[in-house]
Amino acid sequence: xxxxxxxxxxxxxxxxxxxxxxxxxxxxxxxVIDDDSVGEAHAEIRLVDGQLYLNDxxxxxxxxxxxxxxxxxxxxxxxxxxxxxxxxxxxxxPKTRPATLGATKAKSDWSLTAIGxxxxxxxIMIHGSMTFGRSSNCDxxxxxxxxxxxxxxxxxxxxxxxxxxxGSSNGTCVNGxxxxxxxxxxxxxxxxxxSIFLVAxxxxxxxxxxxxxxxxxxxMFRAVAPMPKAPPKIQPVAPAPAARxxxxxxxxxxxxxxxNGRVIVGIIVVSxxxxxxxxxxxxxx
Length: 285
What we know:
Elements: E1 3-6, E2 14-15, E3 20-24, E4 31-32, E5 43-48, E6 51-56, E7 63-65, E8 68-69, E9 74-76, E10 81-84, E11 87-92, E12 111-116, E13 123-125, E14 129-133, E15 140-141, E16 152-157, E17 160-165, E18 172-174, E19 177-179, E20 181-184, E21 189-192, E22 195-200, H1 205-211, H2 242-254, H3 258-283
């Protein structure tokens, strides 16, 4: 069982159990929205065989799902965002959504912008899987002459987006080439009939690894490690010149030693005294 809630939580949510659930500013609606952008009988949700279908009741401002204007029998799923005038509503499944009140759907990093065809200028955020085709049960309805009822499907998985052609009569093109299945990358152009969409997505090494086709080879660039700094140079201490040491030793050895000088003086004195005494003996003094 699904629930219809206000994104800004201005009013309590309501369970979608009625076979016909009406939405508008009039007091007779199941969900009364007091906002001047909401028509008196704006839209209705029908429960058929367990599935929910949204219909616009000819409102002046229109009814949108995921940024796309809808008319009749648009199949709703858990996680869809509905714009009724300026008011945004959410289809939620309390069994699978986080318990924290007010938690909203995570913002997608991927989107499509229509650059050609009837939807030109409109941007569509990519969540989960989304189907393109003429059928009112498709997520993105393109009423083109060469569109199949279920033409193609986009799926967001593992951070990347893949497109698969669902056996359409006139094919699905990516960058002008027909594909049966293709991994998309930012900047790719998808075309169905006269409708052309530009793919926008995250930019970075992790995301880029998911963009490669199965038959493409990736060139990996390893980050350059910083060069280690050279250790500081140690200036060697110059040894004292050998000649200076030798001169010092030589100078010390050439210096007269104090003890030897005194002995020599003593010998001279003794020799002089002995000569004087010998002379006196000879003369007979």
